[in-house]
Amino acid sequence: MVAFRVRDAWHRPFQYVRNSKGHTVYIKPAALCELEMPEGLVTFLIDIEDQPALAEAVLLLGELFFTSNRVQKYITLYKVYEILEPNPNIDFAVVRHSLSHASTALSRPKTVAKLTELFGGTQINLNISKHIRIFYRQMIQLIVETDMRLYKAITTKASNLRRLGSRQDALYDWQIDGIPRFVNPIPVHDSTFSDL
């Protein structure tokens, strides 16, 4: 059984956190990712300006939680994978190509050959049970590969990333703004960027 290490990612940047003194402070926009590490769950913020590719990968992964369409899920997941993997596996790439392009527009010999090997042609028809099985097998393998690569990319750069005491230290914009009659706004202690 595969143990996934990426436990949470959010699709929008965070701009506010609680610092060690419990004050709410403004930070440069950052992507949030929570990892299962040997010491337990660890929440990282990846500064979008300093680490644009890694931050984009995390934000895209967060989008998966808000996407119900399986084709769009695969395409979004593949985008995360291709950010993290400079030499994408052809098995993953051809499925993405087939989902993104008209079957008659696929002309690269390697792409056509691999799609024909997997699906019997260049078109993936998710109304055919054999195609559905192959599609989901590819998607599961892509999830596993992406999880491993994102975990490695974040842990490799961990010393340069902001680490939060807990997931609750990252504050959503709606928490800062409040919701009239339901949630009071949280005052921001410092309006300049904070290094915590």
Number of domains: 1
Mean pLDDT: 91
Termini distance? 39 Å
Per the principal axes of the C-alpha atoms, what is the gross shape? elongated
Q: What structural class results from the helix and strand content? A: alpha+beta
Oligomeric state of this protein: single chain
Biggest β-sheet strands, sense, barrel: 7 strands, mixed
- The number of distinct helices, counting runs of at least 4 residues, comes to 6
Poorly predicted runs are none
Written as H for each helix and E for each strand, in order along the chain, the element string is: EEEEHHHHHEEHE
**In percent terms, what proportion of residues is strand?**
15-25%
Task: Give the fraction of residues assigned to helices.
Answer: 40-55%
Number of strands: 7
The gyration radius over C-alpha positions equals: 20 Å
Task: Briefly summarize what is shown.
The chain has 196 residues and is an alpha+beta fold. The protein has helices spanning 52-63, 70-84, 90-100, 109-119, 129-156, 173-177; strands at residues 6-9, 14-18, 24-37, 40-47, 162-164, 170-171, 190-193. A hairpin with a 5-residue loop joins β2 (14-18) and β3 (24-37).
How does this model look, in words?
With 196 residues, the protein is an alpha+beta fold. The chain has one domain (6-181). Helix content is 42%, strand content 20%. The protein has 6 helices and 7 strands; from the N terminus they run E-E-E-E-H-H-H-H-H-E-E-H-E. The chain has helices at 52-63, 70-84, 90-100, 109-119, 129-156, 173-177, and strands spanning 6-9, 14-18, 24-37, 40-47, 162-164, 170-171, 190-193. Strands 1, 2, 3, 4, 5, 6 and 7 form a 7-stranded mixed sheet that branches. Strand 2 (14-18) and strand 3 (24-37) form a beta hairpin. Helix 2 (70-84) packs parallel to helix 5 (129-156). It is elongated. The model has no long low-confidence stretch (mean pLDDT 91).
